Amino acid sequence: MSEPVNRARRALTEAPADLLLDRIADVLAETHRVERVELLQVDYRLSALLPLADGEPVTGPGHPAWRCFDHQTPIVSDGAGYLPVSMRGERRGVLRVTPVPDDPTALGELTEIATALAHEIAAVTAGTDVYRTARRSRRLTLAAEMQWEMLPGRSRIRPSFSLAGQLEPAYAVRGDSFDWSDDGQRLWLCTINGTGEGVAASMLTSLGTYALRNARRGGLRLADQAALADQAIFDLHRGDRHLAALLMELDLRSGTLTAVDAGSPRLVLLRDGEVRELPLEAQFPLGMFEATDYREQRFELCRGDRLFVVSDGVVDATGKDVRYGETALDRFLRRTGPMEPLDAVRSLIGDLRAFVAGDLVDDAVVVCLDWTGPQDRPGISTPRGC
């Protein structure tokens, strides 16, 4: 690691939470003769790059900042450098530096520093509102605030998988949500198709999410995770409120997908350019009845398979009295094959917004998962049938 990168890292770790950008600017002025440093964060809708300080939002898709964000690579344009501010696949935004040195080594150092900035923003965000506040182009509803705070992130990349999700309408989402976690050998993924309005919907989803996390962290198998969450919701609401969810566990070594369908959204497989819905066994939503016994299903994934989970808010989106529907959805999903998961999710949401000519009225959740296959390890072979 070069001395400029080391200096920047030290400055970041020693800086007050609200002064990360200022400290980086001081270091870059000395090490790379950079005169101006700007942080552009992607907003909740994935439709604008918003400056941390004063400045104009970047919304045009052809802008160098968006090309940097989309392709996750440094972009040099008109004397300015645009660097991806990302960590572990979570895209937070773009760092714009002016002027940018005409030197590939220096550009590489600046890219490393932008990554270090992403890690430090993630570390300090729990203790300051500076970065959260600057990410919104308008006020979040209270329910949406609760939903976004509960998410594990919006995208993630690991050696065996890539993953992304999005909630809509981003600034007013109520009950739809998703959650994920991995331990290097297994990935757990849950999507929730929430019901109800406002804070009541968000509170129900929160209860279900935390109950599932509690069961997962207690080492329970997938069906028992569903049963624990089911009982927690029933104990509180006695069947008057319930929650539709899809629980999945992916063995990252073999590609075996275990699923529990509790009144869930659609689970769609994209393989070799063809789209098909996986046949889930419909079971009762969480909290509908007391002591529901849930059953697990198993599917074998192939290296390169892509899974989409979409709630009914996607299929039922209506524009000009016409429903979006399964046919349009499948056609669009087929076109996402070359895209990264976050780009695929963002493109689908963008297509929905165009279809309804604005923000979605009903909640919608979209999650995209790519299983890239087991890494080369002794004793691990390609899954059967692939």
From TrEMBL:
Cell division as UniProt keyword: no
Keyword Hydrolase annotated: yes
SMART domains: PP2C_SIG (SM00331)
GO MF annotation list: phosphatase activity
Keyword line: Hydrolase
Domain of life assignment: Bacteria
InterPro entries, per database record: Bact_Sigma-Reg, PPM-type-like_dom_sf, PPM-type_phosphatase-like_dom
A matching Pfam family: SpoIIE
Domain PPM-type phosphatase: 158-371
Record-given protein name: Stage II sporulation protein E (SpoIIE)
Organism: Micromonospora citrea
